[in-house]
Amino acid sequence: MKLREVKDILEASVVVGEEKLDMEVSTAFGADLMSDVLAFAKAGSILLTGLTNAQIIKTAADRSIAAIIIVRGKEPSTEAIEMARELQIPILSTKYILFETAGILYSKGIVGCLKKVDGDFYK
Amino acid sequence: MRKASSAVWKKLKPEVNASENILVKNSFDVDGGNFDTAGTVSTRIKSILKEQGLPSDVVRRSAIVSYEAEINVVSYAKRGVINLTVTPAAVEIAVNDEGPGIPDIEKAMQQGYSTASQQIREMGFGAGMGLYNIKSYSDRFDISSEVDKGTFLKMIILIQKP
Amino acid sequence: MKLREIKEILNAEVIVGEDKLDIEVKTAFGADLMSDVLAFAKAGSMLLTGLTNTQVVRIANVLDIAAIILVRGKKPPAEAIALAKDVHIPILTTKYILFETAGRLFAKGIVGCLEKVEAGSERI
Ligand SMILES: Nc1ncnc2c1ncn2[C@@H]1O[C@H](COP(=O)(O)OP(=O)(O)OP(=O)(O)O)[C@@H](O)[C@H]1O
Ligand SMILES: [Mg+2]
């Protein structure tokens, strides 16, 4: 699915990365804990989060996350926006809560970047 | 009580009148830095309010604002006291702490602003939403602070809406 | 839907509240930020979270959360288990990540306790 479709489905606003809406995405990870993002989020996935600070943008970029979807109607901080521009990582913002965001995307075919946290599924 | 605080107190007096029938008056100590007991005061407050038979919305909002304030004392201050007063008209929760104080209250009230340490963040705090939640869940809210001294919060939840 | 069905859908393990699997749940909220849970989660909803400390149980108690579903294979510490037993809040743990957990439950008809963070979108 194109990021543009993700944006449309979630009625999201594009905070950073208007020019990147044609990128393809197929997997997602949702968390508000930096350490869990570091541990489990996979390169190329979209990250659904309620974190809005510059650190999460840096962490996401380090993990080669494709795009950040900020949930619960939150606005990223100015520093976060600057960081995202610099690291060229798109930020979208949606009013849907994380549960709904995940539910809606899942029903449109987006899957978890890993299914389970289990010996067999760690990669 | 510090000067700044008593001014706040006076300003809010009409809501909880001293001459009014006081149903509950309780004071609880909060231990700064102790996350093992953090939140226990608010749990107590919730059950006290429930026992009073207050509407569930009032109980819930009181517990939320008290919890957020309590966690802030544990996260940022040395120690604090939470005073609970219930009258037929309102629940009043006043929180006084000894600690670093808040240099810029306006900034601290903004959603997303947080100085929480990495350790506190890993416990799930540090969204910078606590004070904002307190404000939105109380019917009246006042905050004052003195750097290197402490912070004073007063929240009022009305039982009967005017 | 009964909590028992949630357990089946998520291949979850029941850590606290084996006796409470017949409670009915319809709505959920998922977050790892305590203040966001306090701001938005509604009484009677399930809380999906990666937080396992005693604070999350205290918050669930403050909010009258129906059950805590720990995601990403997390296991709560002994103190959190003891507290949950005390306050009678069931804790289940699933290996699914939050995205998959939400996706699977949503597909079976569970909805958010609110849809969006905007006025009038509360579901309960
Ligand atoms: N009692 C206090 N003493 C000193 N500083 C405080 C106190 N309460 C709040 N602050 C300051 O105000 C900031 C914002 O507080 P707020 O409760 O809104 O968010 P937070 O505690 O950082 O995160 P959250 O409450 O969402 O977990 C804090 O990060 C801290 O810098
Ligand atoms: Mg706080």
Q: How many domains comprise the coordinates of chain A? A: 1
Hetero groups in this structure are: adenosine-5'-triphosphate, magnesium ion
Rounded mean pLDDT score of chain A: 95
Name the quaternary structure: heterotrimer
Structural account:
- The complex is a heterotrimer of chains A (123), B (162) and C (124).
- By secondary structure, chain A is of the alpha/beta class.
- Helix content of chain A is 35%, strand content 17%.
- Chain A is built from 5 helices and 6 strands.
- Chain A has helices at residues 3-9, 34-40, 54-62, 78-87, 98-107; strands at residues 13-16, 27-30, 46-49, 67-70, 91-93, 111-112.
- In chain B, helix 2 runs antiparallel to helix 3 and helix 3 runs antiparallel to helix 6.
- Chain B starts with a helix and ends with a strand.
- Residues 1-14 of chain B have low confidence and may be disordered.
- The longest helix of chain C is centred in the middle third of the chain and has 10 residues, at 54-63.
- Chain C has 5 helices and 6 strands.
- By secondary structure, chain C is α/β, with parallel strands linked by helices.
- Chain C is globular and about 40 Å long.
- Chain C has one domain (3-112): 3-Layer(aba) Sandwich (Udp-n-acetylmuramoylalanyl-d-glutamate--2,6- Diaminopimelate Ligase, Chain: A, domain 1).
- Classes of the chains: A alpha/beta (123), B alpha+beta (162), C alpha/beta (124).
- Chains in contact: A-B, A-C, B-C.
- Chain A binds chain C through residues 28-33, 36, 40, 48, 50-51, 72-74, 94-107, 111-118, 121, and chain C through 28-33, 36, 40, 48, 50-51, 72-73, 95-107, 111-118, 121.
- The structure holds adenosine-5'-triphosphate and magnesium ion.
- Adenosine-5'-triphosphate (ATP) binds at residues 68, 72-73, 75-77, 97, 99-102, 108, 113-116, 125-132, 151 of chain B.
